[in-house]
């Protein structure tokens, strides 16, 4: 029987970094492997965060790079293979080539539990591997299970199995209401999300125990584990909790999240970056490109060099057009208008910018 590996990917963003801290402090007996996929195009602040985390964790974070034998950075190597075709939100070849494939090669065919840093205040699923030997777990959410597991557990065809488990394993809540909910079929009037939420309202830990027992009858990696401490998890961590974990442990929040003040035509505004990943990430908003131009001009001009033969990072606008003085003024004024009335309770802009930190180039981590 193969040993189950527990792995956690560090993207350089706040959520994955905080998850590493959380796992280390709350589940110290789990032998978690930490890794990061290096594209060669990250901000210096990203590499600094990884170094800080290594000190806190007391172990090395494995650095994975696609095409190790290439003399070029992984991104440049693949860009040539793609004929200069830049990645975009529609065709994210960089995600597959530079993040997912190195990760899947790293774990091979071993049974793997992959911990993903999606918060309790986010409504998205995140990356789920198509490889059957990789199972995703979400420690920051009340629902730690992936959608594929929940859909099978709560399917109408699995009701009898769940009722059998209810009567055969130790549980804290054996109320008639719990039994009724488990046996209630899903339909148009009682959807799966409604059923799941009703069960969680009764007893999250008991539901986790039922799911873990059911997993023992499957081919999921957790079927090989005799005990899984996250079954006892019923927390839901949100954005403020993430920042608190980073600050309180001394690891710190990546500097690119910090607001920088600017003035334009007598108006005062603040900007920052909202995501980890490559400095030329195509998910950036225009105000973030302006931030890069003004805070890291060397990197901005490197990003400009990639735009040729009709390929640009943004839709309908090149970086050369974006940094024209009048265009910068327009972008800043529009951003100031957009952010008026937003509560200023945080030194970060993450409640303002359209944040999808781990959806794009760090899809396999979040």
Question: What is this entry, summarized?
Answer:
It is built from 13 helices and seven strands. It is an alpha/beta fold.
Structural account:
It is a single chain. Helix 1 packs across helix 9. This protein has helices at residues 14-26, 44-57, 74-81, 93-107, 147-153, 159-168, 176-183, 192-215, 239-248, 286-295, 297-305, 319-322, 325-339, and strands at residues 5-9, 32-37, 62-64, 112-115, 134-137, 260-264, 267-271. The longest helix has 24 residues, at 192-215. The strands form 2 sheets. Strands 3-2-1-4-5 form a 5-stranded parallel beta sheet. It has 366 residues and is an alpha/beta fold. The chain has 3 domains: 5-145 and 232-248, Rossmann fold, CATH 3.40.50; 150-225, no CATH class; 256-339, no CATH class. The chain starts with a strand and ends in a 27-residue tail after the last helix.
Order of helices and strands: EHEHEHHEEHHHHHEEHHHH
Shape: globular
Question: How far do the termini sit from each other?
Answer: 29 Å
* Total helical segments: 13
**Name of the CATH architecture of the largest domain:** 3-Layer(aba) Sandwich
Strand residue percentage: 5-15%
CATH class of the largest domain: Alpha Beta
Q: Mean pLDDT, as a whole number?
A: 90
CATH superfamily of the largest domain: HUPs
């Amino acid at each position: 029987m193969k040993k189950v590996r527990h792995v956690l990917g560090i993207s350089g963003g706040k959520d994955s970094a905080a998850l590493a801290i959380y796992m280390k402090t709350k589940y110290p007996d789990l032998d978690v492997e930490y890794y990061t996929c290096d594209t060669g195009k990250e901000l210096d602040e990203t590499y600094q965060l990884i170094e800080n985390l290594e000190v806190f964790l007391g172990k090395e974070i494995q650095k994975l790079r696609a095409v190790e034998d290439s003399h070029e950075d992984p991104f440049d190597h693949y860009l040539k293979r793609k004929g200069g075709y830049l990645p975009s939100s529609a065709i994210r070849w960089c995600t597959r080539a530079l993040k997912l494939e190195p990760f899947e090669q790293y774990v091979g065919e071993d049974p793997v539990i992959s911990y993903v840093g999606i918060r309790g205040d986010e409504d998205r699923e995140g990356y789920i591997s198509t490889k059957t030997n990789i199972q995703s777990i979400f420690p920051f959410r009340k629902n730690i299970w992936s959608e594929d597991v929940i859909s099978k557990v709560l399917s109408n065809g699995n009701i009898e199995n769940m009722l059998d488990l209810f009567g055969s394993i130790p549980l804290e809540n054996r109320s008639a209401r719990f039994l009724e909910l488990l046996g209630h079929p899903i339909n148009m009037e009682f959807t799966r999300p409604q059923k799941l939420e009703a069960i969680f309202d009764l007893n999250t830990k008991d539901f986790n125990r039922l799911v873990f027992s059911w997993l023992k009858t499957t081919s999921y990696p957790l079927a090989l584990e005799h005990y899984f401490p996250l079954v006892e998890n019923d927390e839901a961590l949100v954005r403020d909790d993430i920042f608190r974990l980073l600050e309180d442990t001394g690891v710190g929040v990546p500097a690119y999240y910090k607001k920088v003040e600017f003035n334009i035509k007598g108006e005062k505004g603040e900007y920052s970056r909202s995501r980890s990943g490559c400095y030329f990430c195509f998910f950036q908003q225009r105000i973030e490109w302006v931030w890069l131009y003004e805070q890291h001009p060397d990197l901005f001009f490197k990003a400009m060099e990639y735009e040729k033969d009709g390929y640009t990072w943004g839709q309908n606008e090149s970086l050369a057009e974006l940094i024209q003085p009048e265009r910068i003024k327009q972008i800043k004024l529009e951003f100031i208008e957009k952010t008026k009335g937003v509560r200023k309770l945080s030194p970060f802009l993450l409640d303002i910018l359209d944040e999808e930190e781990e959806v794009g180039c760090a899809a396999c981590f979040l």
